[in-house]
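Q: Hi! First time doing this. I have a protein sequence and I read that you can turn it into a structure. Is that right? Here it is:
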Amino acid sequence: MTDTLNALRAVLIETLELRQSPEELREDTALFGALPELDSFGVVSLVASIEDRFEITVDDDEFGAEIFETVGTLTGFVDAKLAEA
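A: Yes, that's right. Below is the predicted 3D structure, encoded as structure tokens:
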């Protein structure tokens, strides 16, 4: 999970143009509803960046607010998608 977490931190910072350092984005860091940058457009941009970075596909029926709850839930989702490949 650590490799995925570190890569996901970089994707979050780059895509959403966050001012936080990677170390500030812990697994319990809230995302959706807590970061103003993560609005509906931000979610779409973030998913596209995640798909490109991790070479996965996020289907429409997987697209729910629960995966964007925290950095940890998003990391777990990406890890699960990687395990499917």
